[in-house]
């Protein structure tokens, strides 16, 4: 099964750490953007009729900022032109303060069954510093509108002066809102973002401090029945994200919209990050792709190893051997030996031991050939 990612590039304002394709000043182009998105969806769907898709993910940007009729229209287009499995998981990212009960009702009526809320932190002063558009109270108001639904929350660690205690309190807030899934990412100071200046000024936490906060948060989440299933993702049993799990299995997905990436038939391709360029390409029947590359041989094997080692379960060795007509244990014996302190074989799986998963990057590079 494959996934569909749809990028909605509009936000109310720009957060200080954001380097995603989101264009607060371009929100007036919503209608024309969706006209292009519908068109791209039709073309991609027709070309991929032989594949079955079982997840849809609206990300951004802030997908919830546009009127619900556009999201509904895109789901209708997907249903019309793609081969969708029964009971697809359909997720929408939303920010507190951008939805009301009417909007939620509209989402549910078109089959959206998973809601991913950008919380980031439960502290209003930190939210303000990040230029987020909401308060902690707004988060709870949004959760109330979603009572009984499958809710996920995004949390950031590594904020200026942040403590483990504050992250635990943020987790408490998320759980009080009925959240069953948490994505917890470390703040990355991307070049060109305002937060990068804080980084250059030495104001952000060190890697070791962030790792300590991560460990404290992971233990706390486990105490609360929210288990890690991927290095940055935690869920109550049965609430894992199907859409994201497919990425880590090196499963196929199609990305629709500006900046969206795809992996289909062994090729990775990415649409332009430029909004006007994207819309012009679609209008004039040209490809919006700015890169398209076949991934094969050792590169494909490395992707498979790197992605699956991000998960708690690890890599399915038999699947690897079958997919690449290779013998993992023989071919990667040296890298396995070098990392024997940090990794283990459990049954048919090769995994990174619990305490080292957070530093998996330094381990997986040994599998590069
Ligand atoms: S809401 Fe998300 S996409 Fe929009 S500016 Fe903030 S971080 Fe970027």
Description of the molecule:
The mean pLDDT is 97. The longest helix has 18 residues, at 30-47. This protein has 15 helices and 15 strands. The radius of gyration is 21 Å and the shape is globular. Helices cover 39% and strands 23% of the residues. The chain folds into two domains: 2-247, Alpha-Beta Horseshoe (pyruvate-formate lyase- activating enzyme), CATH 3.80.30; 298-367, Orthogonal Bundle (Arc Repressor Mutant, subunit A). It is of the alpha/beta class and 369 residues long. Iron/sulfur cluster is lined by residues 11, 14-15, 18, 20, 22, 60-62, 95, 118.
Q: What is the fold's blueprint, element by element?
A:
Blueprint: E1 2-8, H1 30-47, E2 52-60, H2 68-81, E3 83-94, H3 101-109, E4 114-120, H4 124-129, H5 136-145, E5 151-157, H6 164-176, E6 181-186, H7 194-200, H8 207-223, E7 227-230, E8 233-235, H9 242-248, E9 253-256, E10 261-264, E11 267-271, H10 275-283, E12 289-294, H11 297-308, E13 315-316, H12 317-324, H13 328-331, H14 333-338, E14 343-346, E15 349-352, H15 360-364
Parallel strand pairs: 1-2, 1-9, 2-3, 3-4, 4-5, 5-6
Antiparallel strand pairs: 6-8, 7-8, 10-11, 11-12, 13-15, 14-15
Helix pairs in contact: 1-2, 1-10, 6-8
The chain binds iron/sulfur cluster.
Report the total helices.
Answer: 15
What is the beta-strand fraction?
15-25%
Instruction: Characterize the overall form.
Output: globular
Strand order of the largest sheet: 7-8-6-5-4-3-2-1-9
Residues in helix, %: 25-40%
CATH architecture label of the largest domain: Alpha-Beta Horseshoe
**What's the gyration radius in Å?**
21 Å
Superfamily at the CATH H level of the largest domain?
tm_1862 like domain
Unreliable stretches: none
What is the averaged pLDDT score? Answer: 97
Here the CATH topology of the largest domain equals pyruvate-formate lyase- activating enzyme
Oligomer: single chain
Name of the top-level CATH class of the largest domain: Alpha Beta
Would you tell me the structural class of the helices and strands?
A: alpha/beta
């Amino acid at each position: 099964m494959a996934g569909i990612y749809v990028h909605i590039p509009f936000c109310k304002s720009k957060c200080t750490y954001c380097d995603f394709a989101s264009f607060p000043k371009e929100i007036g182009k919503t209608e024309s953007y969706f006209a292009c998105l519908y068109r791209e969806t039709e073309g991609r769907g027709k070309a991929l009729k032989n594949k079955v898709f079982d997840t849809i993910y609206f990300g951004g940007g802030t997908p919830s900022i546009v009127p619900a009729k556009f999201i509904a229209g895109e789901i209708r287009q997907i249903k019309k032109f793609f081969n969708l499995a029964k009971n697809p998981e359909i997720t929408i990212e939303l920010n507190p303060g951008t939805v009301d009960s009417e909007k939620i009702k509209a989402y549910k009526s078109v089959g959206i069954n998973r809601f991913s809320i950008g919380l980031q932190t439960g502290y209003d002063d930190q939210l303000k510093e990040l230029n987020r558009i909401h308060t902690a109270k707004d988060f709870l108001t949004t959760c109330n509108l979603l009572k009984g639904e499958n809710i996920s929350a995004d949390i950031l660690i590594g904020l200026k002066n942040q403590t483990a205690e504050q992250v635990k309190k943020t987790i408490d807030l998320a759980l009080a809102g009925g959240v069953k899934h948490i994505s917890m990412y470390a703040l990355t100071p991307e070049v060109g973002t305002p937060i990068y200046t804080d980084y250059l000024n030495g104001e952000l936490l060190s890697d070791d401090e962030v790792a300590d906060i991560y460990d404290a948060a992971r233990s706390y989440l486990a105490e609360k029945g929210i288990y890690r299933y991927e290095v940055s993702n935690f869920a109550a049993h049965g609430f894992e994200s199907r859409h994201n799990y497919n990425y880590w299995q090196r499963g196929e997905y199609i990305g629709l919209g500006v900046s969206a990436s795809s992996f289909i038939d062994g090729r990775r391709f990415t649409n332009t990050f430029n909004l006007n360029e994207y819309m012009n390409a679609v209008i004039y029947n040209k490809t919006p792709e700015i890169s398209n590359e076949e991934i094969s041989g050792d590169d494909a094997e490395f992707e498979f190893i790197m992605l699956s080692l991000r998960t708690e379960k690890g890599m399915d060795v038999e699947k690897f051997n079958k997919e690449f007509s290779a013998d993992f244990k023989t071919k990667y014996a040296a890298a396995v030996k070098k990392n024997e302190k940090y990794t283990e074989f459990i049954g048919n799986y090769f995994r990174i031991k619990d305490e080292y998963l957070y530093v998996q990057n330094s381990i997986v590079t040994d599998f590069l050939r």
